[in-house]
């Protein structure tokens, strides 16, 4: 019996030693990107990173939010900060939450599948029923927390609410799309893109391209398992700082004065 116990313990202890050795080896290890990847990053940055405007549009009253999976994610900025009269967007079956318990921001605006138009209305306007049904029950089981949330949203929207109505088709030709997923060019090198385009014919008004390189991966012991810290660099850059991504109104100029409904 004692011999059997020894035979079981020795492999177990040996395995522990191997795991521990792996942890020790991982402490303080830096893994820089290979020279070819760094060169590729530099070439891409030099060739075409940043904002490229082919033509600007003037007196744009409304835009179509073509960003996949964040339908009407542009609504708050476009209506409040950029002061467009309306934002149009589309909801497909793929955009809806897969579970009733899934937290889905766009439920504040959704009126069903198809095309929709969002406009800004004065707070408590009856057209904002869907908006209030969502935000007034933002924290189920806590009326106080939901009321605080709604007050925050009102302040964020300048004491307005967002009303949505179904529409048969998109009425504006000005489409804005922010590609939410990074494109993997090669290991450690990624590309993000924004497009301003003509919804009717697909013609581009402008593009914005950002490249990101995972320059160094630093591995160190964090608790029992090794953890990683990734040092990244991006372009375009200015004074060693990232440019803020451009906004929809940088290409689609809105009228100087717009009256809110």
Keywords:
5 helices; disordered N terminus; two-stranded antiparallel sheet; alpha+beta; 261 residues
Q: Which H/E pattern describes the elements?
A: HEHEEHEEHHEEEEEEEE
By DSSP, the count of extended strands is: 13
Mean pLDDT: 78
Biggest β-sheet strands, sense, barrel: 11 strands, mixed
Outline: globular
Report Rg.
26 Å
State the separation between the terminal residues, measured CA to CA: 86 Å
Class inferred from helices and paired strands: alpha+beta
Tell me the number of helical segments per DSSP (H or I, 4 or more residues long): 5
Count of individual domains: 2
Low-confidence stretches: 1-27, 99-105
**Proportion of beta-strand residues:** 25-35%
Percentage of residues in helical conformation? 25-40%
Structure overview:
By secondary structure, the chain is of the alpha+beta class. The chain folds into two domains: 29-53 and 180-195 and 208-250, no CATH class; 62-167, no CATH class. It is built from five helices and 13 strands. It has helices spanning 2-26, 35-48, 75-81, 129-135, 143-156; strands at 29-32, 50-53, 62-65, 86-91, 114-122, 160-167, 174-178, 183-186, 189-198, 204-222, 225-235, 237-238, 241-242. The strands form two sheets. Strands 1, 2, 3, 4, 5, 6, 7, 8, 9, 10 and 11 form an eleven-stranded mixed β-sheet that branches. A two-stranded antiparallel ribbon has the order 12-13. The protein starts with a helix and ends in a 19-residue tail after the last strand. 22% of the residues are buried. The model is unreliable at 1-27 and 99-105 (pLDDT under 50).
């Amino acid at each position: 019996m004692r011999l059997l116990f020894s035979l079981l313990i020795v492999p177990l202890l040996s395995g522990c030693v191997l795991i521990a050795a792996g942890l020790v080896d991982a402490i303080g290890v830096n893994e820089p990107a290979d020279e070819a990847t760094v060169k590729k990053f530099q070439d891409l940055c030099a060739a075409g990173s940043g904002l490229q405007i082919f033509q600007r549009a003037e007196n744009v009253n409304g835009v179509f939010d073509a960003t996949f999976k964040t339908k009407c994610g542009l609504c708050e900025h476009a209506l409040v900060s950029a002061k467009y009269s309306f934002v149009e967007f589309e909801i497909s079956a793929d955009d809806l939450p897969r579970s009733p318990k899934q937290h889905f921001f766009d439920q504040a605006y959704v009126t069903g599948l198809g095309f929709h138009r969002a406009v800004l209305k004065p707070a408590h306007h009856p057209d904002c029923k869907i908006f209030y049904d969502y935000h007034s029950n933002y924290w189920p089981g806590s009326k106080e927390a939901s009321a605080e949330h709604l007050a925050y949203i009102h302040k964020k929207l300048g004491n307005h609410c967002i009303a949505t109505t179904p529409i048969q088709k998109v009425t504006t030709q000005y489409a804005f799309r922010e590609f939410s997923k990074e494109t993997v060019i090669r290991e450690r090198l990624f590309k993000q893109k924004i497009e301003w385009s003509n919804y009717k014919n697909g013609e581009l008004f402008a593009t914005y391209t950002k490249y990101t390189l995972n320059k160094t991966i630093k591995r160190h012991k964090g608790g029992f398992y090794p953890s990683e810290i990734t040092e990244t660099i991006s372009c375009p850059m200015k004074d060693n700082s990232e440019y803020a991504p451009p906004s929809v109104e940088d290409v689609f100029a809105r009228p100087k004065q717009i009256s809110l409904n």
